[in-house]
Structure formats: structure tokens, C-alpha cells
Amino acid sequence: MRFESTFNLVLAAVALVAHAVPIISPDEIAVKSGEGLRLLSLAEDVEPVWKTEDEKLELMRAGIKFFDVTEVYDQEQKFPPKNNFVSIAATFPAPSHQAELAPILKTVSTTNMQTYLSALTAFNNRYYKSSTGTQASNWILDTVKSITSGRSDITASLFSHSWGQPSIVVKIAGKSPSSPVTIVGAHMDSINLSNPTNGRAPGADDDGTGTVNLIEGLRVLVAAGFKPSTPVEFHWYSGEESGLLGSQAIATSYKSSGVQVKAFMELDMSGYFKPGTTEVMALQADYIDEGLNTFLKSLITAYSRIPWAMDKPIGVPSSFPYEAVTGNDNPNIHSASDTTSVNGFSWAHSLEFAKIGVAFVYELSV
Ligand SMILES: *[C@@H]1O[C@H](CO)[C@@H](O)[C@H](O)[C@H]1NC(C)=O
Ligand SMILES: [Zn+2]
């Protein structure tokens, strides 16, 4: 779902846990996490708190949002506060590659996305601690490898974590590989909140749609012989439903190795809008990166048949297009009912988000 979704949110988490003097010592983290406790950041400017796995699940069932910072808290203390590495460009140029992009965008295929999604939803669930969750990661890796094979400038690899389910990272080097990187991401895990490990969680919309939007976006770019000037990465995150585990781990790792990020966009849920409502791409209204948001609006106007709409303020930072404004989004997530057969699911809707993903990458990196 949306809260567990953006690098911007990851940055917020980083800001949440960064102190001049760490209040929670490395020793305490080692001991408590060794006992199975998790360190959760529940709100801005509030020290994270220790919870058991059961308490954590109860919070999730109650719809309470948090970051699980157990594995990144320590390392984040080493960075200066507000080490904001995302969106180093304050403004982004207006879209200018309509002529080259038009034929590429025509090749984005809902049939392909359906095929990819069928494979992903066939796993009982994609929970970060279940064996099928790990199998799903490997399926994505195999799929993106077959798409990118034959391109020596592209690598596709697993990003391993301390838990079983790896994230997946595809890197397109670009002609100047040390330039800031443009990243698009989606979370590949799913969850059944009543029984995370064994329960059925197809996660078709959350976030099967974003996941297949990016696989298909990668496919059309590679098929078009796309060779960017600046580096591009496609990420599929593990463990997002359990507190943004995968994206935080990657963001922290990138910060420690000094990776500069030009821009980031998340696709998390793109396949549903409430029947009878007007179809839009919903953009967040608060804590947004203004430059990136302005750019996204112009991208949507240039490349999508659907208009953008500002969502209601919900108090979390983000800069990404979401399937509908709050209240018109998919109510079936985190359950066995998150399938493509719900009334309101629309491949034609999701297609537009895949196109915006392609346009985002292309416009920022060619
Ligand atoms: C979780 O999975 C079980 C078994 O697969 C299923 O019966 C139940 O409806 C699921 N829970 C939710 C919230 O969908
Ligand atoms: Zn999600």
C-alpha cells in the first residue's frame, strides 16, 4: 500500500532516526533484535519503540503506519542529519522527447503485464519471510535477466537482506556511469494480514501492478535499444509491507556508498479506481518534492490519457502517481481478495502508469 512506498518516505524515516547522539545504542539494538524485538518508528520527531513481532502485526492490522528501522537505525546515525540525497536537481526540464517516446509507449503491452502478473499472483503469497516470497523474487530476477540478456551495460541482480526474500536491482550503466542515477521502484512483496506466512495474498494490485508496470517498462526500453546518458535503475523491493524493510536497506546502503540519486519514482498500486469515479493519477498534496511533482504533472499531461489530480493531504511525504485519490483506491489490499477480478480493477488504467514509468526514466536519463 501507499505509505510503505517511497524513497522520500525512506528519507523521512532517516530523518526520524538521525540524532546527534544516538539514543538507542548499538548494544541495545543487538540485544533486543537478538530477542526477536523490532524497532519501529511510528511518528516523526518521536523516538522509535521496541515491539514484538506480534505487536507489530497488531499495529499493521489496526492500519497504523510505521517504519521498521531495526536494521538501519545504527547506520543512519553515521550520516549527517537531513543528508538528503534524493532529487539533487531542484528543478527538472519539461518533457521534450515526445517524438522518440511515442512509438515506444505504443509498445507497452497489457497482455504482457497480465502474463507477468499471473505468474506473480500464482505464488501463495509474496511475504518477506515465506518461501514463496523468496521464489517470487527469483522469478522477477529470471524475468528481468531474460529481458536484459545480451546487454553488457545492464546488470540484474538480487539485493540480499538479513531475511529470506531478496530485493531485485537492475542497473543500466549509461554513457556517464558516475552521474546521478534515476530510479524507479515498486515493492514486490504481498501480505495476508490474518496469516502472513501461510495465508493467501495474491497482491494483484498491491503491488503486483507496480511490479509488472516496471517489468514491462524495462522490456519496452530494452526492445527500443534504449541507451541512456546517465544511469538508470529499476528496483523491486522486498519486505515493504512489514515496514519498508527492503527500500530502507537499499537507501541506507546507497547513502553509505555515496550513490547520488537524481530522481526517484515509486509505482505502488496502479490498477484500481472506484467504479463510477473519475479516472485520475493521484499525486500527493503534502511533504512533496515540488520540483519532482511539477515534473510529474508535466509528464502525465504529455504522456497519459488520464489527468493528474492532487490527493487530499494525508501527512506523509511522497512524489509518485497513485491509482486514485484517497477513498477511491483499492479496499481489497492485504487480503486474499486483492485480485484482478475485483470490480474496479482496470488494465487500461494500469497501462497509463507503466507509460509514465517509461517516460520518467527516458526524459530524465537520455
Ligand atoms: C488469509 O488467508 C486465508 C487462507 O489462505 C484466507 O482464508 C483468509 O481469507 C485470508 N485473510 C484475508 C484477510 O484475506
Ligand atoms: Zn503497496
TrEMBL record:
Its EC number is 3.4.-.-. It holds the Pfam family Peptidase_M28. CDD domains: M28_AAP. It comes from the Eukaryota. Residues 1-20 form the signal peptide. Residues 168-303 form the Peptidase M28 domain. Keywords: Aminopeptidase, Hydrolase, Metal-binding, Protease, Signal, Zinc. GO terms for biological process: proteolysis. GO terms for molecular function: aminopeptidase activity; metal ion binding; metalloexopeptidase activity. Belongs to the peptidase M28 family. M28E subfamily. InterPro entries: M28_fam, Peptidase_M28. Its cofactor is Zn(2+). This is Peptide hydrolase. The keyword Transcription regulation does not apply. It is an enzyme of class 3 (hydrolase).
